[in-house]
Structure formats: structure tokens, C-alpha cells
Amino acid sequence: MFEISPSQLDAQRYRDAVEHQSCGALLVFEGIVRDNFDGRPVRGLEYQAYPELALKVMEQITAELHRTHPKARVAMAHRTGTLSLGEVSMVIAVATPHRAGCYDASRFLIEALKERLPVWKKELFADGDSHWKPNDPETPPGPGSA
Amino acid sequence: MKMAPIRVTLKTFAQLRELRGVDSEELELASQTSVAQLFVQVFGTGPLAELPVAYALNHALVSPHTLLSDGDTLVLLPPVGGG
Known about the structure:
The complex is a heterodimer. Chain A has helices spanning about 10-20, 50-70, 100-115; strands at about 1-5, 25-30, 35, 40-50, 75-80, 80-85, 90-95, 120-125, 130. Chain A is of the alpha+beta class. In chain A, strand 3 and strand 4 (about 40-50) form a beta hairpin. Chain B is an alpha+beta fold. Chain B is built from two helices and five strands. Chain B has helices at about 15-20, 35-45; strands at about 5-10, 25-30, 55, 60, 75. A five-stranded mixed sheet of chain B has the order 2-1-5-3-4. Chains A and B meet through strand 4, helix 2, helix 3 and strand 8 of A and helix 1 of B.
């Protein structure tokens, strides 16, 4: 299940989508709007997304994960619109047969999405200023890497 | 022989969208225009030319040298910030 949604994300939906009797491990990652950026007070975030490509990217990243974790079950969603502090901006649910693969898969998925998902974030500062903030370029860990 | 101009739909996001003031617009261009040339025509050669933009043509990522065709939809993707 892959979604780009203007509505509040319910993490339980994505958890339920990946739960399976073959999987003994399940992790749900939630990205949450926090109250500052490097100590500067933030009142919220605005997200824009390019859904036609974003859903393809989610599928591609999952296919890459399946090369090393073929039994992983994945559900992902990202919000759009203006979010207040504490709102969930992203959910990644993953279930695998064993715990090591589950932590590995969850970390791979979040790093790959932050690098490649066509979504843009505007930081809305408490003082009224705002700016579009790209993610820091990082080399994401590959599935199976240390 | 002069080639007929082409019409292309341009979509932008984030700071590029704010500069254009619209989500989407129709542009008339010379035939044989590449996606990178379109960017320069629209945003110029100033500081924005340094922005590492990616290009999606008809919803698939393409290289900057890709030539546009009549009826194409081009999306300009500034550096992403999801999560």
C-alpha cells in the first residue's frame, strides 16, 4: 500500500496492511512535525508532492529492498498540505520474518525515501519567516549493509 | 526549413512554483528544445541555474539533454525534502 495523502495519516492502517502470519517482526516508523529546526522555533511544515512519480518511487524502492529481503511486506504514505506540530508527515510500516531484517529494512526505506521521494518541505518558522528545505544529501545504507 | 513550434505543459514545485506563481502552464517552444534549455528559458541563467534540478518527462525521470516533443508534460523537481 503506497499513498500520498492530503488527510491525516493513521499509522494503524499501514501496520495492518503489512501484518502477516509469515512475519515475526513488524516496525512502524512515523515522521512527526517537531517544534524547531536547529533550535529555531517552527510552527509547522508545508508539504508539496508529485504523486504520479512519488508512487513509482515508492514501488522502485520496495523492489530494491526485495532484492535482499524478498519476504518483506511494505506500506508507506506521505502527507501533503500544511501540518501542525505533532502531526504525522510520513508512515513506513514493514514486516519481515525476523527482527534483524526488519530494522535493516525500515532504515533502508526511510533513508531512500528522504533522498529520492519527490516531496518538498517548507519550514514555517514561529517568527513568520519560511523557506523550502531540501534534505541533507547522505548516502543511505543499502539493505543488508552494516 | 523552419520547424513548427511545439506546445509543452510545464509543472513546477516548491520554490520554482512560487517564482512562477502557478502550478502548471502551457509554453510554446522551438522544436528541438531540450528540457535543460527550457529551464534556462523560463528561469534564466542567474543563481537558480546552479540549483540541481531533476526533470520528469511524462512522469518518468529523464536526462537534461532530452528533447521535448509537442504535447509533452515536463515537471521540474528541485532538491527534495520529504520525511
